UniProtKB/TrEMBL annotation, chains A, B:
Alphabetical GO biological process terms: negative regulation of DNA-templated transcription; response to stress
Entry-linked SMART domains: HTH_MARR
PROSITE patterns the UniProt entry points to: HTH_MARR_1, HTH_MARR_2
PANTHER family: 4-HYDROXYPHENYLACETATE CATABOLISM PROTEIN, TRANSCRIPTIONAL REGULATOR, MARR FAMILY
Protein name, entry field: MarR family transcriptional regulator
Domain annotation HTH marR-type: ranges: 1-141
Keywords: DNA-binding, Transcription, Transcription regulation
A molecular function GO annotation: DNA-binding transcription factor activity
Length: 144, 144
DNA sequence: AATAAATACTTCACATGTTAACAAAAGGAG
DNA sequence: CTCCTTTTGTTAACATGTGAAGTATTTATT
């Protein structure tokens, strides 16, 4: 009983890819105006929401791998949007925090970001939107 | 009534990112054994499912941008997994097809790929799995 | 305390994502 | 037919994704 592979519209990986592009496209355009990438935006948001923290935790929260994060933190530091200091408790670690300039970037783009999310929510309807998030989170809690 | 941004678990972009990683992680591992990337695999699958076609259509089906596809086709051609010939109707175009070696790659990894998909489906349950695909497709049909 | 194992990044190498610029060919308007 | 526009694919430049190797530091073992 060998089944065929699903068509692309019924292929979960591709459907996820397209959905992500649909959701992030408008946000990327908005961020391009302030010369910030989508990943840099995620890092700033994590720092602004959860406060100063070390790179490993940032990587977990922002869904980035450490090698990528290393480069991103370098760029953000050059731009003056974050600051770093060594962790006195553990000299392997650093403590990263967002600067005033970084908070301004967030503040200036927050409302547009929220509107983009609301637009998606309105398109699907609140119940289906929540259901989508529930299903994705359930998928993400799979062990493996 | 200004709302806060959602936590990462309720952030659609991040939930999509994590879901994609969860789904593709095992497949990436499998493909690494035959020295093929996830994107190269998508291109081969499109060609095997839909037959010979031009790069613009491949890019659409495999959810890749043309500049990425250009490089991927070069790699696949070097590996002997695809072949190209100019389109006699329109000299701007090419016709790309999968080779025997390319079909063998697909054949050798098809069953493991299907098993990975079935595993996800079993975890969510068939109804919820289909619902997830429906919601993603509905999202992808948003205009803009 | 000496050594092995684990942790927290960093660096490297290669592949892709993304935007912009570009060359070649096809289509359309006059 | 000529000029302009569109389409198709490539190249370039920079940023990130990803796995592997490397460095410094801490923790666990003996």
């Amino acid at each position: 009983m060998t089944r065929d592979l699903p068509l692309t519209s019924r292929s979960l990986p591709i459907a996820l890819l397209r959905a992500r592009e649909k959701v992030m496209g408008p946000i990327r355009l908005m961020l391009a105006d302030v010369d910030i990438t989508e990943q840099q935006w995620r890092v700033l948001r994590v720092l602004q929401e959860e406060g100063p923290q070390d790179p490993t935790r940032i990587a977990d929260r922002a869904c980035l791998l450490l090698p990528s994060l290393t480069r991103i933190l370098q760029k953000l530091e050059e731009k003056g949007l974050i600051a770093r200091r060594p962790d006195p408790e553990d000299r392997r670690k650093q403590v990263v925090r967002i600067t005033k300039a970084g908070e301004k970037i967030i503040h200036d783009n927050l409302s547009a970001s929220i509107r983009a999310a609301e637009r998606i929510r309105a398109h699907l309807g609140p119940e289906r939107y929540e259901m989508l998030l529930d299903l994705l989170n359930e998928l993400n809690e799979m062990d493996s």
